[in-house]
UniProtKB/TrEMBL annotation, chains A, B:
It comes from Glycomyces harbinensis. Gene3D superfamilies: Winged helix-like DNA-binding domain superfamily/Winged helix DNA-binding domain (1.10.10.10). Residues 4-99 form the HTH arsR-type domain. It comes from the Bacteria. This is DNA-binding transcriptional regulator, ArsR family. Keywords: DNA-binding, Transcription, Transcription regulation.
Length: 119, 119
DNA sequence: TTCATGTGCAACCCGAGTGTTGCACATTCA
DNA sequence: TGAATGTGCAACACTCGGGTTGCACATGAA
């Protein structure tokens, strides 16, 4: 029962699912590079239709990775680092947790049998 | 052209895809907690069949997140932190990259129009 | 050898996600 | 006002991932 459950984290869940798709990562890259862009403009730089881009942006927005604001008749999207930062930290914590446990297991094994059994 | 393409990273790609699924995250948690386990044992602690677990473990192994070794007639899986660490760092780098760009954009905007246009 | 346990492989089902197209609505500009 | 541009919504097709079941094969124990 050393368990700290990392498997179900409401906010990171959406971020991980969003980042799993290559097209969405590409969108994030374009947005991070350009600072701001509309779905129509982004679609011109990708091999998919505008509607596909819109759907991807909706997923990214739901995950908190981007935010879109209306300016006149267009909707400009931009990147939002907070959610990504949070997930990066979650991941780093998980990794160090694994390291901790593995080190503990290794120590236990060595303590139980230094080189062979010793009576 | 400030672009540093984070969107297509061969190794992180698999890790992100692997982590996108809740059942796989749960598996990783069980493995990190128990240190080592077989697919059959893991299936008993999850609401899915052994075969489903086997498939998930294959995905995790392909991503480098777990490794399985045969011991007699059973295959024991354990967690491997390296790939996770690498992806966590990739993600942190991406996040700080976003921060950098956004800060630059903000400075540029403020420099261009301190409070209003000034001729 | 016989039985139990654990794994491997294959076929199959099903839902969700990705992508498309078509059209209606909104906004800007001539 | 009308034309151009951009967005929103809906229906549809298709693939793929997650899950299941069934059975064959391998290994350890009695």
């Amino acid at each position: 029962m050393t368990g700290t459950d990392h498997s179900s984290d409401a906010s990171t869940d959406g971020v991980l699912a969003a980042l799993a798709d290559p097209t969405r990562r590409r969108l994030l890259d374009l947005l991070a590079d350009g600072g701001e862009a509309t779905a129509t403009a982004l679609a011109e730089r990708l091999p998919v239709s505008r509607q596909a881009v819109v759907k991807h942006l909706a997923v990214l927005a739901a995950a908190g990775l981007v935010v879109g604001g209306r300016v006149g008749r267009e909707v400009r999207y931009s990147v939002r680092p907070e959610a990504l930062n949070a997930t990066a930290q979650w991941m780093a914590a998980l990794a160090s947790d694994w390291d901790r446990r593995l080190a503990a297991v290794k120590r236990a094994a060595e303590a139980a049998a230094p080189e062979a059994d010793r009576g």
